[in-house]
Write a structure and sequence with these properties.
Cytidine Deaminase, domain 2, 2 domains, single chain, 344 residues, 6-stranded mixed sheet, alpha+beta
Length: 344
C-alpha cells in the first residue's frame, strides 16, 4: 500500500531546524545542509548535505558552493537556506564563499544559519532582539518533528549510525555466512555441468523472486544458506536486473528491508549487487544518506561495478527520487537477455 505524503508547516528557523534531521534521516554534524525551496509558500523541494572542510580553506569552500549552485540550477530552483552545523571556524568560511557564489549565480539565500552546541545563529539577521549574539537555544521537541516521527520519518543520531544499519554482520553470523557461501559455491560447481546454464539461470531467478515476494508479504529471510544462495544468484546480471525491474516505488519499504539484509550478510565479493539494489530503492524512498552509504559498500566490494557507479553519478548530480524510475519491466528484461543469448 502506498503511503500518503506528510505535510508540515515550517515557520521560522526553529521549525526548520527541527525537520532537517527528518529530511536527512540523521542529525548532521560538521556539515553544510542546503534546503532548496520553491513557490509562493517556499515549499521545501530538496535537501542535500556536504561535509565541512577540516581544516577550512577557500578552494574546498568554493567547490562546495559551486556544486550547490550547479544542483540548484539543474533542478530549476532559485532559493535556498544554508545551515552549517559546527563551530564558526569551520562553518563561516564556507558560508562566506557560498553567499558570494549564490549571488553571482543569480540564486537567493533565504537564510544562512549556523548550529552548534544546542544554539543557532543567523548570518543575515543583525537584530539582537531576535538574533542575540549568544545564539538562540534549540531546545525541546518541535511539533513538526513530532508529526514527522509519527509518520514514520524517524532519525538516527548520526550518519555513522545510518552506516551501522548496513554494516557487515560479524561474529557467529559472519562465520555461518562464510561457510554457507562456500557450500553454495561448491553446490553450484557440481550442478552447473549437469543442469546446464538455462536451468541454473531459472533456479537463480526463482530464488531471488521468492525472496522479493516474501519481503513484500511482510516476511524475512534469516536462514544463512538461503541468504548465501540469493547473494550467489545476484552475481548473474540477468537475475540482478530482473530484481531491479521489480523495485516498484510503492514497495520500497519492503525492498529496503530485503536488500539491507542481503547487504549485511553477503560475504566479500558478493556485496556489490545487493548494495546497489539497496541504493536504488533508498533513492526511490528519498533516503539519500542510505543510498550513498550503500553505494560506498558496493564500490568497496567492486570499484568498477557499473550499476553502483551509475547510481552514484545520479546522486552526485542531485537527481530527485522521481528520477529513480524503472527502465524495463521484468518481462522486457527477460526478452532483452534472450536476444543477447541468441545474438551471441
Amino acid at each position: 500500500m502506498e503511503s500518503q505524503p506528510v505535510r508540515v508547516q515550517v515557520r521560522g528557523p526553529l521549525a526548520l531546524l527541527a525537520v532537517v534531521p527528518h529530511l536527512l534521516g540523521f542529525h548532521p554534524e560538521r556539515s553544510l545542509v542546503v534546503i532548496a525551496t520553491s513557490g509562493p509558500h517556499s515549499r521545501i523541494k530538496t535537501a542535500f548535505r556536504f561535509d565541512l572542510p577540516d581544516p577550512p580553506g577557500t578552494p574546498a569552500a568554493t567547490t562546495i558552493a559551486d556544486h550547490t549552485a550547479t544542483l540548484l540550477h539543474r533542478n530549476q530552483l532559485t532559493t535556498a537556506i544554508l545551515i552549517g552545523y559546527g563551530p564558526g571556524t569551520l562553518v563561516t568560511p564556507v558560508i562566506d564563499v557560498a553567499q558570494v557564489v549564490l549571488a553571482r549565480e543569480g540564486l537567493r539565500a533565504q537564510d544562512l544559519l549556523r548550529v552548534h552546541d544546542g544554539r543557532y545563529w543567523s548570518y543575515l539577521c543583525q537584530d539582537p532582539a531576535c538574533c542575540p549574539p549568544a545564539g538562540t537555544p534549540v531546545t525541546g521537541t518541535h511539533p513538526a518533528a513530532v508529526t514527522l516521527t509519527a509518520a514514520g520519518l524517524g532519525t538516527l543520531p548520526s550518519r555513522a549510525a545510518v552506516a551501522a544499519t548496513i554494516a557487515p554482520v560479524n561474529g557467529p553470523h559472519a562465520d555461518a555466512m562464510t561457510q554457507a557461501t562456500r557450500q553454495a559455491e561448491r553446490t553450484l560447481a557440481g550442478y552447473r555441468p549437469i543442469m546446464g546454464p538455462d536451468a541454473v539461470r531459472t533456479t537463480f531467478l526463482s530464488t531471488v523472486q521468492a525472496a522479493i515476494t516474501s519481503y513484500r508479504d511482510g516476511g524475512t529471510v534469516t536462514d544463512h544458506p538461503q541468504l548465501a544462495r540469493i547473494a550467489l544468484a545476484l552475481t548473474t546480471l540477468e537475475v540482478r536486473d530482473d530484481a531491479w525491474a521489480r523495485m516498484l516505488p510503492e514497495l520500497c519499504d519492503a525492498h529496503i528491508r530485503l536488500w539491507t539484509d542481503l547487504t549485511r550478510h553477503a560475504r566479500p565479493g558478493y556485496v556489490a549487487a545487493p548494495a546497489s539494489l539497496l541504493a536504488f530503492t533508498a533513492w526511490q524512498a528519498g533516503n539519500g544518506a542510505l543510498a550513498n552509504l550503500a553505494i560506498d559498500r558496493a564500490l568497496a566490494d567492486d570499484p568498477g561495478y557499473s550499476m553502483a557507479r551509475l547510481i552514484r553519478t545520479a546522486l552526485t548530480e542531485g537527481l530527485p527520487p522521481s528520477a529513480a524510475v524503472l527502465s524495463m519491466t521484468p518481462e522486457e528484461v527477460a526478452v532483452s537477455y534472450q536476444v543477447q543469448r541468441r545474438d551471441h
